[in-house]
Amino acid sequence: MFQQLPSCRQPRKTCSATEDMVHDKYTKLPEEENAVKTILIVEDEEAISRVLAAYVKKAGYHPIRAASGTEALKQFDLEKPALVLLDIMLPDIDGLELLSVIRTKAPVPSLC
Fold first, then answer.
1. Alpha carbon 33 to chain centroid distance?
2. What are the pLDDT digits (tens) for 69-111?
């Protein structure tokens, strides 16, 4: 009485190695020997810096905080973070200038 209609669902194709690499590039921090990845938080407002550090720590990473561009560069050289969370408006240096300096040192991912 009723005719069965063909399924509209297509089988999901499996990801190729290239797609996996692109996915990993944007969802994972760079691999290092350290078990816990370090994230540098550059924020001059103490309350915001503490909240960001709490979220980073809860996510299983090691937060390092800097309240100025000068302090951030020192911490960056000492700790070699896997990621930088960067405020644009800092008291001593523009955040985008700081980003340019950081990028000359290492190709670390940054969020501004």
1. 18
2. 999 999 999 999 999 999 999 999 988 999 999 999 998 888 8
